[in-house]
Amino acid sequence: MWQMKLPPHIAAGSLSSKQVRKLWRTVRKVCDTALKTIGVDWSDPPRSWLFAHRWARNNDCPRCGTKLRHETVRGRTACWCPVCQNSSR
Fold this sequence. Notes:
Blueprint: H1 17-37, E1 69-73, E2 76-80
Antiparallel strand pairs: 1-2
């Protein structure tokens, strides 16, 4: 969701066919990149990835520097950037 700049509150059923295809491609790309980057030696993820920032409180978005938000969305803990993943986009 962060890669596509989609807010965590968006319901999967509300995505257009084009967005679903893009999400699928993005997830595949993220997984492929992760396997090539950290899957070889299990090193820590790069600091430019959201994953490296998402669990610590008061961390900043690696893309824009805004404070990340944490909240429960549909029963799961979500970490998201209120600027990059703005629902008004």
